Structure formats: structure tokens, C-alpha cells
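Deliverable D5.2: sample structural annotation.
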Amino acid sequence: MLRQVAEGVLVHQSEFVRSNAVVVRGRAGVLLIDPGVTGSEIDCLADDLSDLGQPVVAGFSTHPDWDHLLWHARLGEAPRYGTARCAAAVRDQLSDADAKARIAEHLLETEIAGRVPLDLLGLITGLPAEATRIPWDGPEVRILEHQAHAPGHAALLIGEHGVLVAGDMLSDVLIPMLDWDGADPIEDYLAALRLLEGVAGDVDAVVPGHGSVGGAGEVQARIDRDRAYVLALRDGRAPADPRIGPSAEPGWEWVGDVHEGQLRSLVRRSGRDGTPR
């Protein structure tokens, strides 16, 4: 079900890793950001929008991970946007004819095997590299592009309604997941946190790609917690982070495995050039 988090901004949360689809009301319809995961849930979202009399007039993918690139025929044929770097990364992924098959194979190990619509995966248009706004007939949505987590990742600031759509950052259940293929994963992430910190004072609600919506008082706290994790990772210290270890939420213990994988990635990078990056 759609839940309003601010005037004109609603969220539909998937059962799968608490993925959040974000709906922003415009004049003639809605902007749909990261529309969801399973076909049945996206179908439910389409029903909700139909009941509201709100067609989808634009879509946006915050970054080029498969679970943020999905679509459903019932959502219509509105233009679907991403940053230029995001769109380029998607084109590169889909240039491999086996890309969708590999995603489907990966999902065989999950509870959503066979339930994810991949036909319309990644059909997004890259905005001009200098674009700072989503082109649509609705509230101004500012693009805050950075290189943390994935190439061309964008957080979105809906300033009129005080909402920050954070993509795969600022989650209460997932730790920062760095892009280990990037030139400088640690600094890229810290720079992205500084970028988000610059608008935190204008935010009354933050919507992460996965996890719970946070209120105004939580935005800075989430930035501080993510920064503390990244700095501990950089410095080789055990992070005091409630999202991993014995304090992890039941059912989310696997996030500790993500942390262990990042430690191994950091060691591999250090081995290449002698210093953690």
C-alpha cells in the first residue's frame, strides 16, 4: 500500500529487502522513482495509482543496480530517466546478451525467484551530464549526483516537500556498500555524505532505497552513522554499528557478511597499491 511521507510524496515498500518505490504527485500525473521489485508488488502499485487517478508521467532510476531498473507494462510508457553516467553503466551491462539471464539465475537463490519482471529492465534515458533537475511537470526535483555505491548514483531532493530520496544510502538496516570498481571508493563515499549533509537542514523526511523512512531528526544521525562506518573501514577498526553483529535486526544478520566482503575488497585494493583507498 502507498503511504504518504510528506505532502504529495508517497512510498510503496516491497517485502524484498524493504525496497522503497517513491511516488511524487505532479500536475498531470506522478513521477515514479525506483518502482519496485516483484511483478505482483509493482502491479499493486499500478492499482493504487489507478485508484488515485494518477498516471505515471515520468520515471527515474537512482542508480544502475538491477533492483532499481525495473518496470511493468501497467506503468505505461512514460520516459524513464537516470543520470548520464547511470545510463551509460546500464547500456554497458545490457550490451551483454546474457545479463538478464544472470540476474534471473542469481535470484534463484532468493524468495523472489521467478517473480521479477525483467523484460523492461534498464530502458532508461540518460539526462545531459550537466542536468541538475528532473524534466517533468511537477515539483522541482533536484539531482544530487555522486559516485558512492554505483556509477552515476543520484540522490533526489524534493525541496518543496522537504524530502530526500537517498537511493542506496542512509539506510537503517544496510551498511554503506562501496563501489569497489571505482577509482577511490572510500573518498567517493565520504564526498557523497558531505553532499547530502549540505542539504540535510532542508529535509523533513529521508527515504532510503531499502529500509525505514526517517524523519527530520534522523537525517544527520544517519549521515553520521554511515560516515563512522566508512571511516572505521578505512582505518581498519571494527565499526561500532548497530546494523552488523549481535545488534543486527533479526533477519538481517547477512549484512555482516556484506561487511566481511568489504573488508576483503579493501585488503585486495591495499595489496595493489600499498595503501587503503
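Annotation notes: The first strand starts at residue 3 and ends at 6. The mean pLDDT is 95.
The annotation will be released with the project's public dataset once the embargo ends.
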